[in-house]
Amino acid sequence: MTQPAITIPEHEIVERFVRAAGPGGQNVNKVATAVELRFDVANSPTLPEPVRERLLARRDRRVTADGVLVLSAQRFRTQDRNRQDARERLAHFIESGLYAPKKRVATKPTRAAKQRRLDAKRERSNIKRGRGRSRRDWE
């Protein structure tokens, strides 16, 4: 089952260019190359409802309490490349909400697995008991 691709219109993306932090010499102090991209996940008419719910349900620190995704890109030296990087990361974020996660089927360990675990614990206990001082050392 393939999902249709979601195309986000330009007017739903807000980009702000700021000065980048970190190394880069005088260029960093003079040129606003870092990009802060904002996308309102909660109120976007483009996103289907199930995708919106999955994206907002994720515990992602980049999503604000109002449901706005804030991505900041400053890995590259040029504004254009940082802008492209931020948009790629937005695409990956939205792509992660396209597919519903599989439901986990609860299973129980087999009797043999339980026995192996207990045997391993018993063996480990014997090893540790052997490390202690023997009775002869106390007398």
From TrEMBL:
Q: Name one Pfam family in it.
A: RF-1
Gene Ontology terms for molecular function: hydrolase activity
Region Disordered, as annotated, extends over: 101-139
Q: Where are stretches of biased composition, namely Basic residues?
A: 101-115, 127-139
| Superkingdom of the source species | Bacteria
Q: Mind listing the UniProt keywords for this protein, alphabetically?
A: Hydrolase
Q: Does the keyword Plastid apply?
A: no
The answer, when asked if S-adenosyl-L-methionine is one of the entry's keywords, is no
| Bias (Basic and acidic residues) ranges | 116-126
Limits of the Prokaryotic-type class I peptide chain release factors domain = 19-35
Which SUPFAM superfamilies does this UniProt record tie to the protein?
Answer: Peptidyl-tRNA hydrolase domain-like
Q: Which residues form a coiled coil?
A: none
Membrane spanning stretches: none
* PANTHER family for the chain: PEPTIDYL-TRNA HYDROLASE ARFB
Q: What is this protein called?
A: Alternative ribosome rescue aminoacyl-tRNA hydrolase ArfB
